[in-house]
Amino acid sequence: MVSLKGNHIYLRALEPEDLDFVFTIENDTSLWELSDTQTPYSRFLIKQYLENAQQDIFEAKQLRLAICDYNDTTIGLIDLFDFDVKNKRAGIGILIQDEGNRNKGYGKEALEILVNYCFKTLHLHQVYANISEHNLASLKLFQNNGFQKIGLKKDWSFDGEQYANEFILQRIND
Q1: Which residue blocks in the chain are alpha helix, DSSP H?
Q2: Nearest Cα to 31, choosing from 143, 135, 155?
Q3: Is residue 106 within 8 Å of 67, Cβ to Cβ?
Q4: What is the C-alpha separation between 119 and 9, in angstroms, rounded?
Q5: How do 126-132 and 89-96 pair as beta strands?
Q6: Is 60 exceeded by the pLDDT of residue 32?
Q7: CATH, domain range 9-127
Q8: CA–CA separation, 125 and 52 (whole Å)
Q9: Are 23 and 74 in contact (CB under 8 A)?
């Protein structure tokens, strides 16, 4: 079994105590562009989600993990989505909530841990990410972790005023 621990952070399953953290992220309109969210989530819905978060990835087709530092502070979330057993692939999304915790290597370490888990435990053939062409920090993060740009989706996302292109990046398990 692959460890979900790194030098500075570890990944863990979501707990009921994560309600306020998840509620804050899901209702932060400045982050909605990253997740294609268009409406706020109630505490009730997030509480239900957390109560069902114990579902197996093979059943739910997704996995959301908390990114925590070794002071047990939750600093972000990392997701596997569109888990596809037949084709052995999944998408990855990551968010470090507080800007003060960004550019400190936490995202890099979390991504390395999750990719290792995907390839060695879940036996996936490939992982991918969809990243706006304007999100330079995320593009750099994924490319520095062995992901390659494989396509550009033109006018993919609309923010209410203009369209933005989105790259698809892929990493294949060699």
Answers
A1: 19-26, 32-35, 43-51, 57-60, 106-120, 136-143
A2: 135
A3: yes
A4: 20
A5: parallel
A6: no
A7: 3.40.630.30
A8: 27
A9: no
Residue 157: exposure state from Cβ atoms within 10 A (0-12, 13-18, ≥19): middle
Structural contact between residues 2 and 60, judged by C-beta atoms closer than 8 angstroms: no
Show Cβ contacts of residue 57 under 8 Å, excluding neighbours closer than 6 positions: 63, 80, 83, 122
pLDDT tens-place string over residues 13-29:
988 888 887 778 777 66
> Is pLDDT larger for residue 37 or for residue 133?
133
- Residue 96 in tokens: 């470090």
HSE of 78, CA atoms in CB hemisphere, 13 A: 26
User: Is the model's pTM score more than 0.90?
Assistant: no
SS3 of 62, please? coil
Owner of token pair 């706006």: 132
Q: Are 164 and 139 spatial neighbours (Cβ–Cβ below 8 Å)? A: no
Map out the domains of the chain as residue ranges. Answer: 9-127
Here the tokens at position 37 are 């969210």
In order of 4, 5, 72, 101, 103, the CA distances from 8 in angstroms are 11, 8, 11, 12, 13
Place of tokens 């621990």: 5
Decide which of 30 and 9 is more confident. Answer: 9
